[in-house]
Design brief:
heterotrimer; A alpha+beta; B alpha/beta; C alpha+beta; A: alpha+beta; 46% helix; 11% strand; elongated; C: alpha+beta; five-stranded mixed β-sheet; three-stranded antiparallel β-sheet; 6 helices; 26% helix
Chain lengths: 176, 553, 236
């Protein structure tokens, strides 16, 4: 395994482009450095990696493992334990149906069914044309407005199946 | 920073108060209903009318009545100096000029606006202790918190009280952990304080994972300095110099406000080295969760802070003896820390006279589900559930009736409508097979099928099981399958027996609290709504479920 | 070293301070079933088979230190019932058809089932899709037989020091993995030492090409290695 003083890192210290040609690694290096390459920063670093790259692919995990001097199996084990980490590219849009208790009693199942039917996909998956990723959330904490659906990070409350269908169809039709 | 500086800041802040203050809720609920665009619209409207010097626009936290969001409160100073608030709900950005007009003309409300009575039943029956500044203080401005008294209790703890006296105050207050189990907070503090001096940690559990609960999120988004102050007081009391707040990754607004609050407190010398010119140092770092309910369990939370898989380990040893990196660690939840400043300010005896003999103080609940008024509710311990559901929440919406109230999330149970006179206390809820939990309260009506509810929670526990111990990992899968079969009418009486046996195993043999409490939703629905299960069994020959009352007799 | 006296199944026994209930009971000839436990590895208390009733509480004996005047029951009806249920749950969780397993006759799960009198399954088999990894030149991994005891993970980390193994996923989706969940043969950290195979209680990890009768998990070699490491004692 590589050691901490990898050539990549020493080259980026002066702010020049990352040798991989991908500047996102510079930000990732900076995040690891901020945590002084401590192994307990793994989850924080994985958050940063996912923010930068959108999802965690094996090479990226290997890069993090090397940076924090952790065994690769540990990094993979930790990353797959937490459901907010994803290992496949996401679609252009993400529709997240909240399945918390309040949303459940207010008909989250029906909402989920509507999206599944329109997109032909299931939670955790992305449509074949990479347009929409469907997700479920455990509870976004806006239960007073249940049922909740999150469209590309924007929380919308008191959702009806009709409104939801309109939104999702709009994405499919126009890609906007 | 010294006490005089706090006072000077307070004075400077109050001198800036405008004649008319418009407060807009910017907690997650109201933000999702458009309070951000409403604020810009209000800014424009104020500017257009040239009211900049008379009107102050404040971005505040949760005003509680979430179902009516976005909420706006207008506070006008009268001649005698008191402020009379007017509250508007479901305010659209297009209505911003109407609000400003009504403000300008001194009228209480314009016709087009939906005004809410701030003395109506939703508010009148609440008691604010933890939430006293929620919806008033500006969460992103430390000056606003200081003006309302933040960090005064910390000053007092550092200069007027010894660590032992702080622990004594907390013990005497009778405060119990607000995260669910209700362990006496003072006892926990005393245990960690008694551990030999050396590295110790203070951890705030803000991994509010119960679906249907949003108390901690609201507190963090609305009044973050209160939690920081509580943690600092705890650190002083037990001899820690490092704190961690473990927040759910699903709460981006809470995370960003905490981050801001920590940076501001550091800049003001209220966190960091030599706080209030004492020898006390306290640093706080944020740790962001990544979607694992089990991390609310304290040993799993410790693993997660250490960058590991969030699997629990058997207790003992308890974190108080061996926690983060093997050092004594105090873990309390958000609401517990939020109670601390007020206990030191008003005194343990003042706190202890609120609530009941066994359960002191108030409790914040997140009221949601099939209910007229949903939102954040704070009541003294011991009030009957009926008070919360019917008086504050207004009961079920028209055309439906309350069937059960679910408390405590996936670890709790369903309390049937007949038992709504039960007081909310740790012991009384436990006696009914539910738990206080962190304070999620979801109201269900006659359309809700209790087997379906039990299956829903079992699905949750199955998905959230960490997989370490066999009873929880494999037992929840089998229970979920059995519940599914019962729901579909394909199960026999033997299956019900197998289900009950599994409940017994998983409850008693699982490694951690998640597994041990996973059967609770099944057990409590079996206890109060057994007929809904039995009427679906293959051999059943009685009347169909819908014709049967849920009365346990 | 202080000595503690305690009662196990009504029998008074003495134990050294710091010993676990499991160790003390075994020294006194009282057998408690275990699965995730392996002498020389850190205990995790995960399988829950070694639960005992101590002073009215259910505690994992592999992790509970002995205490003076402890009153321990290891064989109550309730404990036997729980143990049987746990073994049944494990059988239903993956595919444990013994007749076609390389470990038949050398499997701890199989022995436990016989010892506890498990003769039928009350639970529906989960039948998950499990792969078999034969990419390593000497060893094989059959997830169908894995009981997630994590002995392989611990022996690789604590004794070999390679940390090739870990657990990925959560709940019922947990799987033991090598490196970044790549084929075992491609795992660059693996030293091919074979300790994981020695430690495995079932037929999940096995020597390639061995027939059923040959596939004895070489527990003795492993114990000798552990002893050498811990006590600086070599059995030559």
């Amino acid at each position: 395994m590589g050691t901490r003083a990898t050539p990549e890192r020493s080259q980026t210290a002066d702010g020049s482009a990352h040798p991989s040609g991908d500047d996102r690694f510079r930000y990732l290096d900076a995040a690891m450095k901020r945590h002084r390459y401590r192994p307990d920063a793994l989850i924080e670093v994985l958050h940063t990696a996912q923010e930068l790259f959108g999802y965690l692919e094996p090479d990226l995990l290997r890069y993090v493992a090397r940076g924090l001097r952790l065994p690769p199996s540990r990094v993979f084990g930790v990353a797959t334990f937490y459901h907010l980490f994803t290992f496949t590219p996401r679609g252009e849009h993400t529709c997240t149906v909240c399945t918390g208790t309040a949303c459940y009693v207010k008909g989250a199942d029906a909402l989920l069914g509507v999206v599944e039917q329109i997109t032909g996909t299931h939670p955790g998956m992305t449509t074949a044309d990479s347009r929409i990723s469907l997700e479920t959330a455990r509870c976004v904490g806006a239960c007073g407005l249940a049922p909740i659906v999150v469209f590309d990070g924007k929380v919308v409350g008191q959702m009806t199946p009709e409104q939801l269908a309109e939104r999702v169809k709009g994405w499919l039709d126009h890609g906007t | 920073m010294e006490l005089e500086d706090l006072i000077a800041l307070t004075e400077a802040e109050s001198s800036q108060h405008a004649e008319i203050e418009i407060r807009v809720c910017t907690a997650a609920g109201c933000l999702s209903s458009g309070s951000r665009s409403l604020i810009s619209a209000l800014e424009h409207a104020v500017e257009d009318r040239g009211l900049g010097d008379r009107v102050g626009l404040r971005e505040v936290g949760c005003m509680r009545l979430c179902c009516e969001g976005p909420l706006v409160s207008v506070n006008t100073s009268t001649s005698d100096g008191t402020r009379v608030p007017t509250l508007y709900g479901k305010v659209d950005a297009a209505q911003a000029p109407d609000i400003v007009t009504s403000v300008e003309q001194g009228r209480k409300s314009a016709e087009a606006l939906h005004s809410i009575d701030p003395n109506g039943p939703f508010f009148a029956h609440q008691k604010s202790v933890v939430l006293e500044h929620c919806g008033i203080v500006e969460p992103e401005r430390i000056e606003s918190s200081i003006a309302l008294g933040a960090y005064r209790s910390l000053h007092r703890a550092l200069h007027d009280l010894s660590p032992a006296e702080v622990v004594e105050q907390v013990t005497r207050s009778g405060l119990r952990g607000r995260g669910g189990a209700g362990y006496p907070t003072g006892l926990k503090w005393a245990t960690v304080a008694k551990m030999p001096p050396g590295q110790k940690y203070v951890v705030c559990n803000a991994d509010e994972g119960d679906p249907g609960a949003f108390m901690d999120r609201s507190i963090l988004e609305s009044d973050p300095h209160r939690v920081l102050e509580g943690m600092a007081i705890a650190a002083h009391a037990i001899g820690a110099n490092q704190g961690y707040i473990y927040v759910r990754g699903e709460y981006p607004i809470a995370i960003s406000r905490l981050d801001t609050a920590i940076r501001q407190a550091k800049r003001f010398g209220l966190l960091g080295s030599g706080i209030f010119d004492s020898t006390f140092n306290f640093r706080v770092d944020l740790r962001i969760g990544a979607g694992a309910f089990v991390c609310g369990e304290e040993t799993a939370l410790i693993h997660s802070i250490e960058g590991l898989r969030g699997t629990p380990h058997p207790r003992p040893p308890y974190p108080a003896e061996s926690g983060l990196w093997g050092h004594p660690t105090l873990i309390n939840n958000v609401e517990t820390y939020a109670n601390i400043p007020v206990i030191l300010r008003e005194g343990a005896d003042w706190f202890a006279q609120i609530g009941t003999e066994q359960s002191k103080g108030t409790k914040v609940f997140a009221l949601a589900g099939k209910i007229r008024r949903s939102g954040l509710v704070e009541v003294p311990m011991g009030v009957p559930l009926r008070e919360i559901v019917e008086r504050i929440g207004g009961g079920s919406p028209e055309g439906s009736s309350v069937k059960a109230v679910q408390t405590g999330g996936p670890s709790g149970g369903c309390i049937p409508a007949e038992l709504l006179d039960t007081p909310v206390e740790y012991e009384s809820l436990k006696a009914l097979g539910s738990i206080m939990g962190s304070g999620g309260m979801v109201v269900m009506d006659q359309d809700d099928d209790m087997v379906g509810v039990a299956r829903y929670f079992m699905n949750f526990c199955m998905d959230e099981s960490c997989g370490k111990c066999v009873p929880c990992r494999a037992g929840t899968v089998q229970m979920h399958r059995l519940l599914d079969r019962i729901e579909r009418g394909e199960a026999s009486h033997d299956d019900l027996v197998t289900l009950e046996d599994l409940c017994d195993l998983v409850q008693h043999a699982s490694l951690c609290g998640l597994g041990q409490s996973a059967p609770n939703p099944v057990l409590s629905t079996l206890r109060f709504f057994r007929h809904e299960y039995e009427s679906r069994l293959i051999e059943f020959s009685g009347p169909p479920s819908s014709a049967v009352s849920s009365d346990p007799r | 070293m202080a000595v503690k006296t305690l009662s196990v199944d009504g029998q008074l026994i003495s134990a050294r301070e710091g010993q676990t209930l499991l160790e003390a009971a075994r020294e006194a000839g009282i057998s408690i079933p275990t699965l995730c436990h392996l002498d020389g590895l850190n205990a995790v208390g995960a399988c829950r088979l070694c639960l005992v009733e101590a002073n009215g509480r259910l505690l994992p004996s592999c992790l509970t230190p002995v205490a003076e005047e402890m009153d321990v029951q290891t064989q109550t009806d309730r404990l036997q019932r729980y143990r049987k249920q746990i073994v049944e749950l494990l059988f239903a969780e993956r595919n444990h058809v013994c007749s076609v397993c390389v470990a038949n006759g050398n499997c701890e799960l199989q022995s436990l089932a016989m010892r506890l009198g498990v003769d039928h399954l009350r639970y529906e088999p989960q039948e998950p899709e499990c792969e078999v990894d034969l990419s390593h030149e000497r060893y094989g991994l059959d997830h169908n037989r894995c009981v997630l005891c994590t002995r392989c993970v611990r022996v690789c980390d604590e004794i070999e020091g390679a940390h090739t193994w870990d657990v990925a996923g959560r709940g019922t989706h947990c799987r033991v993995i090598t490196d970044l969940h790549q084929p075992w043969g491609d795992a660059s950290t693996c030293t091919s030492c074979g300790k994981c195979v020695m430690a495995c209680p079932t037929g999940a990890l096995f020597h390639r090409g061995s027939s059923v009768s040959e596939n004895v998990h070489d527990r003795e070699t492993l114990h000798a290695l552990i002893l050498a490491r811990e006590e600086k004692q070599w059995l030559v």
